[in-house]
Amino acid sequence: MSGALPIQFDPASLILLNIIMACMMFGVSLSLRLEDFKRIALAPVAPLAGLFAQFLLLPLATCLFTWALKIDAELALGMILVASCPGGSFSNIMTWLGRGNVAVSVSMTAVSSLAATVLTPLNFAFYGWLNPHTREYLTQITLEPGGILLLVLLVLALPLVLGMTTGRKLPGLVARSEKPLRIASLLVFLGFVGIAFSNNFGLFIERFHSFFWLVVFHNLLALSLGYGMALLLKLPVPDRRAVTMEVGIQNSGLGLVILFTFFPEAGGMMLITAFWGVWHLVSGLTLSQIWARTAHD
């Protein structure tokens, strides 16, 4: 195991990152309704297939992959953390661009965000412990599942409830602000990641070869698991596309919030998580444009 990487981090940035994360979740939740949750009960196959791939197959496959290849403990834990996060808020946009089933995507985002309040800290702790190469490092960084649970509740569950309530009471606000809020949140998040990279440019270049292909392969694995599960269940093509995007677009912003709050010295984990936040947008947009030009049948 290599030593901790010296990431330059301004603790004051944590407040900004938490606000960005909460705003992104609030913006997504403005258009959510209770009917989106009921939809899963009425037509559960596609959403449940995605959630199964999201919270069981992806963390398990990530743990086995990092274990088998004996990947550096910090980088491996970064991959496990990303795999433990719920679907990213931009999966809905990617699904829409790729002519997928947006209703399935939205319902999965809502349920996975709530499920993540328990499953994200649980999966991270369990699979980090299960991999013998990361187990020792996990104890060194003093994992606090209770603290992570509280944080996820504050940046995911609370904004989700507030967004749904606001959207129901002020439908006009949704029509006017949802798209600008999504775009602004994306730009601010990318700006935050960009500043973090620029402040650590030397480290980024030095370790580029060690994390670039890991992130690319990991994202491909996530997309493949989502598509494979949907294909196995013979879901319609629009549903298949929604499930694929939901599993392949991870909420890496949540991962960064957790890292900056609890593991600010874990530079390798931050490199993996921050680059995921950029790469999955590239791969998601690319795939959505291919699908947009491909017939459903």
Question: If you had to describe this structure to a student in words, what would you say it looks like?
Answer:
- With 297 residues, this protein is mostly helical.
- It contains 13 helices and no strands.
- The model is unreliable at 1-7 (pLDDT under 50).
Q: What would you report as the Rg, rounded to the nearest angstrom?
A: 18 Å
- Poorly predicted parts: 1-7
Q: How many H/I helical runs?
A: 13
Shape: globular
Mean pLDDT: 81
Order of helices and strands: HHHHHHHHHHHHH
The share of residues in extended strands comes to: under 5%
Helices and strands, with pairings:
Elements: H1 13-29, H2 34-42, H3 45-68, H4 73-84, H5 91-97, H6 102-130, H7 132-140, H8 145-169, H9 171-199, H10 201-232, H11 237-248, H12 252-262, H13 267-292
Helix pairs in contact: 1-8, 1-9, 1-12, 2-6, 3-4, 3-6, 3-10, 3-11, 4-6, 4-7, 4-13, 5-6, 5-11, 5-13, 6-7, 6-8, 6-11, 8-9, 8-12, 10-11, 10-13, 12-13
